[in-house]
């Protein structure tokens, strides 16, 4: 990043997404591995980009797992469609995730939090609710953006398309999930073919979208089918570095 303030040099963020705790799968085992990796990395901040659960089953597993993490600048989460009980096949029970606060997680519902980091520098984390199903609203977050040069602004949104509704200078980066990277993919000379959401504008990885940086993770868990093919689960590690 050009002009990155000195206190933010090397600032490390781990992104977790799409755990889908509660669906019939190996998601709990993979979640445990993701937590162990995060503990080993010891990031400054953890960002969670939606679909934490599928139904109310095993909610305690999610909460107990998140209590293992204690990044010095906090954990911040937004909700996805599964958290609201909206899925592509059936409507599941909506889950009350207010208990995340007791696990050290700040739930961002169309709002922002600014975290001072060292002398004169800050990270502002803005989060919007499920963008695709009418829960998300950018206006309240944009109204409180801190546009001072020493503030790095991040947007958390389960759906990466929300980034296209912002201006290129609003956020340094948008962190998203949702696609699972296709979850089940077929190898092909021109790149993997996603069997889920094959026409997705944002699949997985880092994108430059009309001047906006968007990072889309394949996420941790699975939904509907309890396995992945040619599409490994992942956590994302982001380290802020001043551009040469």
Report on the architecture of this protein:
By secondary structure, this protein is α/β, with parallel strands linked by helices. The chain has a single domain (6-239), classed as 4-Layer Sandwich (Purple Acid Phosphatase, chain A, domain 2), CATH 3.60.21.10. It is built from three helices and 13 strands; from the N terminus they run βαβαββββαβββββββ. Strands 5-6-7-8-12-11 form a six-stranded mixed beta sheet. A five-stranded mixed beta sheet has the order 4-3-2-1-13, covered by helices on one side. A two-stranded antiparallel ribbon has the order 9-10. Strand 2 (45-49), helix 2 (59-66) and strand 3 form a beta-alpha-beta unit. Helix 1 (27-41) packs parallel to helix 2 (59-66). The longest helix has 15 residues, at 27-41. The protein is globular and about 45 Å long. The relative contact order is 0.21.
């Amino acid at each position: 990043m050009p002009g990155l303030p000195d206190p933010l040099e090397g600032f490390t963020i781990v992104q977790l997404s799409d755990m889908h705790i509660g669906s019939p799968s190996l998601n709990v085992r993979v979640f445990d591995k993701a937590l162990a990796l995060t503990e080993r990395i010891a990031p400054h901040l953890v960002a969670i980009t939606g679909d934490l659960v599928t139904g109310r089953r095993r909610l305690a597993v999610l909460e107990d797992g998140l209590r293992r993490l204690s990044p010095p600048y906090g954990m911040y989460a937004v909700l996805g469609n599964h958290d609201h009980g909206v899925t592509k096949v059936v409507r599941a029970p909506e889950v009350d995730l207010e208990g995340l606060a007791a696990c050290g997680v700040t739930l961002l519902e169309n709002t922002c939090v600014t975290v001072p980091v060292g002398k004169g520098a800050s990270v502002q984390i803005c989060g919007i609710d499920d963008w695709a199903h009418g829960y998300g609203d950018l206006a309240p977050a944009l109204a409180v953006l801190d546009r001072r040069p020493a503030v790095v602004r991040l947007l958390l949104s389960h759906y990466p398309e929300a980034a296209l509704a912002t201006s290129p200078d609003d956020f340094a980066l948008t962190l998203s999930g949702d696609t699972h990277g296709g979850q089940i993919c077929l190898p092909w000379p021109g790149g993997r073919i996603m069997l889920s959401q094959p026409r997705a504008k944002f699949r997985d990885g880092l994108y430059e979208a009309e001047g906006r940086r968007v990072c889309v993770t394949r996420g941790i868990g699975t939904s509907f089918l309890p396995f992945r093919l040619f599409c490994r689960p992942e956590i994302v590690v982001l380290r802020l570095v001043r551009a040469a």
